[in-house]
Amino acid sequence: MRTHISASTVALFVAVGLGAACSQPGQTQIARGNLLASKKDFDGAIAAYRAAAEVSPGKAHPRELLGHLLFDLGRSEEARAAYEEALRVEPDAAIEARFGLARLDVDELRLDRTVKRLSEVLELQPKNLYALLSRASVELQRGDAGDAERAIEDTASAMAIDPKRSAVLYLRGSSFLAARQFDSAEEAFSLLEHEHPNLPLAWYGHARVASARGDKAEALRHLRTAREKARDGADEWDSGAVLRDPALQFLKGDPEFAAAVGASGE
Asked: Residue 4: pLDDT band by 50, 70, 90 thresholds?
């Protein structure tokens, strides 16, 4: 269960609706909810968003805000109800609700339904970068026949929108890796290295390719570099997650692997 509200979520609550006309139904209550959420008065914010929904019965937005807050409070069933109501009252506009439901579904490992929801977003907004990357990520997590190829297609569309973004390049390389197209994966990770030399992602990607190729020395070398990049920057390094990465299972049980990722005691 989630026990905290992320800073980015609070910032979203504060920022949402600042440009909207306060004369529109529900805007006063939404503004109050945003303020209360920023002050961590979450019960007050929930009440304000519910009040906004009551006075704007045909609008998805207050229900989406309510769903976001309930989601981060770990109240998943209530969040789902809020998102579903947003979809019911304003289906074409409720993009955030569709994303919210996808987050809930992936948390419950309902990956087929997650892909379906993200596909619905892309039917409405074919160039939604977040939806493309999210669907590619879930396809790679699901790992059904053809999913790697579908992820390659989604990341190709993402590349056409933002070819230098680190998340795009990393998922592009990971998609090729899942399809065992190692040279193409290396090319994507090399481009990531060129565009973002201070991030650990490129070297982590190189390590995953080397592991898939059975090259222990190269995999360990790249993992050490990735860890150093994470330590030098502000990036989080989760040694346990690295040890569990299926793409690195060639190294599983090797003490040099644990040492390289900073998990010697695990």
From this structure: very low
CATH architecture observed for domain 1-108 = Alpha Horseshoe (1.25)
Task: Return the amino acid letter for 55.
Answer: V
Q: Is residue 22 within 8 Å of residue 13, measured between CB atoms? A: no
Q: What is the dihedral of CA 154, 157, 163, 169, to 10 degrees?
A: 10
Copy the structure tokens of residue 135.
Answer: 């669907």
Q: Which residues contact 12 (CB under 8 A, 6 or more apart)?
A: 68
Q: Report yes or no: 72 and 2 within 8 Å, Cβ to Cβ.
A: yes
Cα separation of 126 and 138, whole Å? 17
- 130 CB neighbour count, 10 Å cutoff: 14
Domain boundaries defined on the chain: 1-108
Among the listed residues 117, 88, 91, the one whose alpha carbon sits nearest the alpha carbon of residue 102: 117
Q: Which long-range contacts (CB under 8 A, 24 or more apart) does 217-222 make?
A: 219/248, 219/250, 219/251, 220/251, 220/256, 220/257, 220/260
Q: DSSP string spanning 48-102? A: HHHHHHHH-TT-SHHHHHHHHHHHHTT-HHHHHHHHHHHHHH-TTT-HHHHHHHH
* Residue with the two structure tokens 């968003």: 49
Contacts of 125 (CB under 8 A, 6+ apart): 95, 131
26-44 as b/e, with b when 16 or more CB fall inside 10 Å? bbebbbbbbebbeeeebee
Write the single-letter amino acid at 177. Answer: L
78-133 residue pLDDT tens: 999 999 999 999 999 999 999 999 999 999 999 999 999 999 999 999 999 999 99
